[in-house]
Amino acid sequence: MTASQARQGNSTSSVLGRRLGAELLRLRTAAGFTQPQAAKALSSSTAKVAKMEGGWVPVRDPDIRALCELYGVHDLSAVGGLLELARVDRERRKAKGWWDDFNLPGVMQEYVALESAATTIRAWQPAFIPGLLQTPEYVRALRESPAARMTKSPEPDDKFIAARLARRRRLYDDPPLSLRVVIYEAVLHNFPGSAATATGQLEELLKVADLPSVDLRVFPFSAGTHSGLNGSFNIISFAAPGAMDVVYVEAPFAQRWVEGGQGAAAYDELFEKITERSLDERESVAFLHTLRKEL
Prior knowledge:
Blueprint: E1 6-8, E2 11-13, H1 15-31, H2 35-42, H3 46-54, H4 61-71, H5 76-94, H6 106-117, E3 120-125, H7 136-144, H8 157-167, E4 178-184, H9 195-209, E5 214-219, E6 232-237, E7 246-251, E8 254-258, H10 261-277, H11 281-294
Parallel strand pairs: 3-4, 4-5
Antiparallel strand pairs: 1-2, 3-6, 6-7, 7-8
C-alpha cells in the first residue's frame, strides 16, 4: 500500500476503495436501507458493511451483486461500473508495479498506480507540460530551476527522470491510455532550460499529438480567463467517464483527491468548458508548429 493511503488498524483505505464505498453508501441511503439490513443480505456483520462503505477493505463481486439486488439497482451498466471499480481496486491493492522500484512521494506513488490502471485521463495544465508528455531534458531543467527547488523530490535526478519516462508506457500500451489534455498557452512560452530544451519538448508534443489515442489542445490567451487557472487537475476514469471518476488536484504544497460525487462532476464540467474554448486539435497542432519555427 502507498504511504498516502489512510490506515486503520490492519485495514487500508484506498482512493478507489473510498470511491466505491461512497457509491455503495449513496445507493443504500437512496434505497432507504440501514447498515444492519445490508449486512443481513450479505450474511455478514454491520462492521463489514461499514468498512466496505469506508473503503477500508476490498469488495467481492458477489457482495456487490447482492447489494445491488437489495437496493433495486438493475441497470447493467451501473452494476458493471461498480464491478469494474471493485476489480481495479482489488488489483491495485495487491499489485506490484514499476513504481515500487522508485522512492516516489506517497501521493504520487498512488497516483501513478491509478494511472497505470486507468482507461482515460483528462488533464488540464496551466503551469507545466503534463508529466506524461515531458521529455527528459524538460524534467531535468525544471528540477534545476530555482522555483522548483522548494518542492523538489529527494529522488536523484536520474531516478526521477526514469520514473517519469516509465509512466509514458501507458501511451503505447495495447490498448493505450486514452488521453485528453489541454495546455495553457503560457506553458508554451515559459520553458525551463535552453532553446534546445524547448525545441525538443515541442517536437515531442507534436509527436504525441499524432497518436490516435491522444487529444491535445492549447488554451490560448485570446480565450480569456476561467477558474481552472487556479491550478492543474487530472480526471481519472477506469471505465466509461462519469460516475466512477476520481480527480487528482495539485497545488504547490498540497495535493488532494476528489472521489466522485458532485465534486468530480464539477471538475468534469469545468474540463469540458475549458476544452470548448480551446483551439481544436488541428488548430493546436498548427499552433505548436508555429512556435517550433519561431525558436
